[in-house]
């Protein structure tokens, strides 16, 4: 069953779309929202596979919801206006339905969703940065750092994006097996790590490329990384590793 939520500020529009979706046995509607704030809370709570989202949601528009959705949630825009179609596909919408939604057109959308699967959606994330909405490949993120009321996304190209999202929200968004939280202020992409150099029990350097500037990490992060890094990752300063191991058994 595909879990979906309906987001539209018009109750009758939600009711009509719900009636169309009920004709499909593989769809289950797990919630509805009439505001973007309610939609964001609902999406985090029920983690739907698909959101059917209206574009015009005064005083904002549906695009502002995208950075708040779980990573694997896919979006189908539903609107009475066609001028937003290009923007919708630029931010990775699966489809764009015009109101009133035709049953045959909806069936085509559902077929597309079933063919794609949720894993494809998990490869990309939409963030709201200084320059507006931006689509990032998840594999290009090397780390997330706390920065006051914001967090910093550190990309493999060494660009930094400041976003208004908490570390707790990132933990809920990113898969923990790929993006463990090392301490209160740092999440890293295990697949992006090139080398870990340990200077002493309290200081280490995390490299994401041969020549890149390393991230400075502390004791807690070092200990967590040692238990999670794949064998293919180079770890330097073996004597220090031994010292840390002895200290943990004392």
What is the CATH architecture annotation of the largest domain? Answer: 3-Layer(aba) Sandwich
* Rough outline: elongated
Number of strands: 18
State the helical fraction.
Answer: 25-40%
Distance between the termini: 52 Å
What is the third-level CATH name, the topology of the largest domain?
Rossmann fold
| Secondary-structure element pattern, one letter each | EHEHEEEEHEHHEEEEEHEEEEEHEH
Largest sheet: 5 strands, parallel
Strand percent estimate: 25-35%
- Say which CATH homologous superfamily of the largest domain is assigned: Response regulator
What does this structure look like?
This protein is α/β, with parallel strands linked by helices and 250 residues long. It has 2 domains: 2-122, Response regulator (Rossmann fold, 3-Layer(aba) Sandwich), CATH 3.40.50.2300; 193-250, no CATH class. Helices cover 30% and strands 34% of the residues. The strands form 5 sheets. Strands 2-1-3-6-7 form a 5-stranded parallel sheet, with helices on both faces. It has a 5-stranded antiparallel sheet with strand order 12-11-10-14-13. A 4-stranded mixed sheet has the order 17-16-15-18. It is elongated. It starts with a strand and ends with a helix.
Which descriptors apply to this entry?
250 residues; alpha/beta; Rossmann fold; 2 domains; five-stranded parallel sheet; five-stranded antiparallel sheet; 8 helices; 30% helix; disordered C terminus
Q: Which helices and strands, and how do they pair?
A:
Blueprint: E1 2-7, H1 11-21, E2 27-33, H2 36-46, E3 50-54, E4 56-57, E5 60-61, E6 74-79, H3 85-90, E7 95-98, H4 103-116, H5 118-121, E8 124-129, E9 132-137, E10 141-147, E11 150-155, E12 160-163, H6 167-173, E13 181-183, E14 186-188, E15 195-200, E16 203-207, E17 215-217, H7 219-228, E18 234-236, H8 238-249
Parallel strand pairs: 1-2, 1-3, 3-6, 6-7, 15-18
Antiparallel strand pairs: 4-5, 8-9, 10-11, 10-14, 11-12, 13-14, 15-16, 16-17
